[in-house]
Specification:
single chain; 253 residues; alpha/beta; Rossmann fold; 2 domains; 36% helix; binds magnesium ion
Length: 253
């Protein structure tokens, strides 16, 4: 059995709109002994919420184990560690982290600062995170995406902007729990067998991740602006369903 790992935002859906052809192409997978898992850098929703959203949109049963998000990786990372965590991000994110670890609202007593996505961030927040680092707190990001697509034509700023700013001033590299970084690729290699194909709309996350785990990479079109050359993708298609058709066609040959 081969596994397809597919991205969500910009690949399977845009906001709450399923991308045409996705539902139909999933129906063929069983017949060809293909398993699917969903790999996203979305950390503003809990894995269970993403699972529920997908079931509703795709009209199929999905196992929670089929969903991999930075929060799944974070949860495993924090197992058996007793750390005081300060969360820079949405209330939703704080609540999730609070359910798996100790969260503090006082950044000065944190041992770990976790950077998630906020609509806007201030210079004061940047300064506070930097002084926490200088006082010995470890900084991690949920992902380093610079943008994410909100519809066919537009995208919004992601986590990456604040992370980049802090990295530049402190001259450090911040590790993330997102694609394509080590925690994420190691998690996939440890937990799934034979991830043969990766489908996604971003070169800097999906295609690089495919390379990390030695899978064939399929790049689809979306509103996202790719900062890296798409030449490193093994295959380029207009949309998800075209990738599935190509995978199946190759299996038949
Ligand atoms: Mg995407």
């Amino acid at each position: 059995m081969n596994t397809i790992a597919t991205d969500l935002d910009g690949t399977i859906y845009l906001n709450n709109e399923i991308i045409p052809g996705v539902i139909e192409s999933l129906l063929d997978l069983d017949k060809y002994n293909l398993k699917i898992i969903f790999i996203t850098n979305n950390s503003s929703q809990a894995p269970m919420e993403i699972c529920n959203k997908l079931e509703k949109l795709l009209l199929i049963d999905i196992d929670l184990d089929q969903i991999v998000t930075p929060l799944v990786i974070l949860k495993q990372y924090l197992e058996n560690k007793n750390m005081m965590i300060y969360v820079h991000g949405s209330d939703n994110l704080s609540n999730f982290v609070n359910s798996i670890a100790n969260v503090t609202t006082n950044i000065d007593e944190s041992q770990m600062v976790l950077i998630g996505r906020k609509e806007k961030y201030t210079q004061l927040e940047v300064n506070n995170i930097m002084s926490a680092y200088q006082n010995g707190s470890n900084i991690y990001a949920l992902n380093k995406d610079l943008t994410f697509p909100i519809n066919e034509f537009e995208f919004e700023e992601g986590n990456g902007a604040i992370v980049k700013e802090i990295e530049k001033i402190l001259n450090i590299e911040i590790q993330s729990f997102g694609k394509p970084d080590k925690f994420y690729s190691n998690f996939l290699l440890r937990n799934f067998e034979n991830i043969t194909y990766v489908i996604g709309d971003r070169v800097d996350t999906d295609i690089l991740l495919a390379n990390e785990i030695n899978a064939k990479s399929y790049l689809v079109n979306s509103s996202i602006q790719n900062f890296l050359s798409d030449e490193i993708a093994d295959f380029k298609f207009d949309k998800f369903s075209d990738c599935i058709s190509s995978i199946i066609k190759n299996l038949q040959n």
